[in-house]
Amino acid sequence: MAHKSDLIAEDIEAYLKAHEVKSLLRFLTCGSVDDGKSTLIGRLLYDSKMIFEDQLAALEADSRRVGTQGGDIDFALLVDGLAAEREQGITIDVAYRFFSTDKRKFIVADTPGHEQYTRNMVTGASTADAAVILIDARKGVLTQTRRHSYLVKLLGIRHVVLAINKMDLVGWSKGVFDAIVAEYRLFAGQIGLEHFTAIPVSALRGDNIIEPSGHSPWYDGPPLLRWLEEAPVEDDLREKPFRMPVQWVNRPDLDFRGFSGFVAAGAVAPGDRVKVLPSGRESTVARIVTQDGDLDRAAAGQSITLTLADEIDVSRGDVLSAAGDPPGVADQFETTLVWFDDEPMLPGRPYLMKLGARTVAAQVNEPKYKINVNTLEHLAATRLDLNEIGVCNLHLDAPIAFDSYEETKDLGGFILIDRISNRTVGAGMIHFALRRSQNIHWQAVDVHKDARAAQKSQIPKVLWFTGLSGAGKSTIANLVEKKLYAEGRHTYLLDGDNVRHGLNKDLGFTEEDRVENIRRVAEVAKLMADAGLIVLVSFISPFRAERQMARELMGEGEFIEVFVDTPLAEAERRDVKGLYRKARAGELKNFTGVDSPYEPPLEPEIHIDTTRLTAEGAAQHIFQALGD
What are phi and psi of 29, to 5 degrees? Predict the structure, then answer.
């Protein structure tokens, strides 16, 4: 490595110790395409001497082969590692690089400039303490400059540098620099970005990157690296109330029980009173344990294990906080959501929400609005598509401890996960708890499900019939109910068409409405099962996610999925209602099996092949499978 601190040669242990205690700054670079983000990072790595000799040799060879600087070193190639990036001269994925100086360690995220990679930019920004927003001095403030500045503000990054790059190509004109800063300051005020530092630079030539440049005698501010070294990031968190999400209950033996985690905010010391959330129990800190021994004090940015004076219940995902200034606890929130997935966000569809070490089931309401981040317009929306940003209400199946994202990122930022594929489909920021979540409480009742079921001498069940239109679901479900009724069972049949005459008559057949259709019916089925009934539900219910949601609403073993399996050609041949004919003629949009997908069950409890069984035979098979 070309850069060597004198300590490396003189005292390697002293060098390693000094390196260990350096503070760490995570920052990102962003801006429009060709503003020079990758070149800037490459220059920082090169000038801070954080390149190994073999890397330098490879860089020189790559610069001659695919570089854009006429054979000179192309610093962007240090960061643009994907073949597609080098071929197109753009950044696609987020590239992370590490470097250090005598004062601080750095992790920098080079994020894409294209709008289609907004989700990648958000990913890189989610852990950043500071942002370097680049502007090409020849082009000024562009749409993507505004877009990324809005995202930086949205993600709570308070320390911002406006690096006006390629000043050498405008003759180091102070007038050009001042005009760009004035235009940007006007926009920054509109989005609430109160403070930023503007620096004129040439990333390619190294001006105002490491040292002040003689080309800009009119600029008296710090060069970029000095600003990065001095940004007071950790102090912001240490001044806040204590917060530590519990990542692990540490029980190495019978005599020790500690709670391990990363201090997200504030500080803690033995003797401090702490509160466990969401339970609300309190205790006192007995010890702060680390691998290197006990501490007298721990602060934001440290990983520690706390032991408490009292034996109270604390689990992974709980939050330890200052007893006198705890975070909130709620299960309904207003949030800003950035959608990452190719499949759209559908209101009412069940997802998993992960906040810190806690994972809970979640549903997103129809967006209040989506945001055009280029114009800051609020637009009406019924869903969110890839890379779109919207403000939505979020409902959880259990209360969680939280702060607003603006207050504490670790307790206010979350991701949404698809329950079937386990993909991360979105990331969000909590604004505040909805007041309704504080006003609604579960009312205890004396007559419970078991009592109602015992009165009817039966075990409540939900038989969920799913299959294509024309598969025979309603016919078979009706026959099964007749058999159960003849046996003296207490039943109710919820049929798709019948329910749409009343409860769901306001819903159409878009994907969003189909999700809501099943959500409502699942909730009704749950209530009926709670009443002790055997509920037969006959709905196409084309999506696995909604059927899984319905299953999870019911008790263990209570949900029985009945797949009425009929080939599309056979269902279309029957076409009793003439729906397939209309769909093929284009008169009926979003029809399952034609222009809307059907996702067959993977492991149904009962599989009915209607090419082998008559409706009566299928009903008898289901009736026998139910047993008692």
Answer: -110, 140
Report the pLDDT value the prediction gives residue 81, as an integer from 0 to 100.
46
Task: Indicate the residue type of 172.
Answer: W
* Cα angle value 514/520/523 (rounded, 5°): 140
The H-assigned helical ranges of 379-510 are 409-412, 435-439, 449-456, 473-486, 496-499
Handedness of CA 82, 87, 92, 97 (dihedral sign): positive
Note whether 315 and 250 are within 8 A (CB).
no
C-alpha distance from residue 243 to each of 179, 275, 333 (Å): 43, 10, 20
Q: Give the Å distances, CA to CA, from 252 to 248, 258, 311.
A: 12, 9, 16
CA 627 to chain CA mean position, Å: 44
Backbone angles phi, psi at 338, to 5 degrees: -105, 125
pTM to 2 decimal places: 0.76
pLDDT number for residue 158? 85
Q: Is residue 350 within 8 Å of residue 548, measured between CB atoms? A: yes
Kind of pairing, strands 534-538 and 461-466?
parallel
List, as one string, the DSSP characters of 228-274. Answer: HHH--HHHHHHTSPPEEEEEEEEEEETTEEEEEEE--BSEE-TT-EE
**In 3-state terms, what secondary structure has residue 154?**
helix
What pLDDT does residue 114 have?
58
Output the pLDDT for position 83: 37
151 exposed, middle or buried (CB, 10 Å; 0-12, 13-18, 19+)? buried
Token digits of residue 350: 């069940």
Nearby residues of 56 by Cβ (< 8 Å), 6 or more positions away: 2
pLDDT value for 2: 38
In the block, residue with structure tokens 């489909």: 425
How high is the pLDDT of residue 90?
39
Which of the residues in the chain have pLDDT under 50?
1-4, 80-92
In what helix (H) or strand (E) does residue 108 lie, and over which residues does it extend? Answer: strand 104-110
Please calculate the CA angle 520-524-528 and round it to the nearest 5 degrees: 170
Known catalytic residue at 126:
no
Task: Give the DSSP H/E element, type plus range, for residue 503.
Answer: none
Give 521-537 as a DSSP string.
HHHHHHHHHHTT-EEEE
User: What is the β-pairing status of strands 559-565 and 358-364?
Assistant: unpaired
The CB density around residue 276, as the number of other CB atoms within 10 Å, is 23
Residue 117 is predicted with a pLDDT of: 61
Determine the pLDDT at residue 1.
Answer: 39
Catalytic residue among 48, 149, 283, 541: 541
All structural domains of the chain:
6-231 (3.40.50.300), 239-322 (2.40.30.10), 328-439 (2.40.30.10), 449-626 (3.40.50.300)
Return the bridge partners of 277, or none. 319
Distance CA 497, CA 92 (A): 47
Extract the tokens encoding 480.
């099964």
Calpha distance 461→451 (Å, rounded) = 15
Cβ-contact 297, 352 below 8 angstroms: no
Give the separation between CA 407 and CA 327, rounded to whole angstroms. Answer: 10
What Rg value do the Cα atoms of the chain yield, rounded?
30
Tokens of 613: 């069984």
pLDDT the model gives residue 573: 87
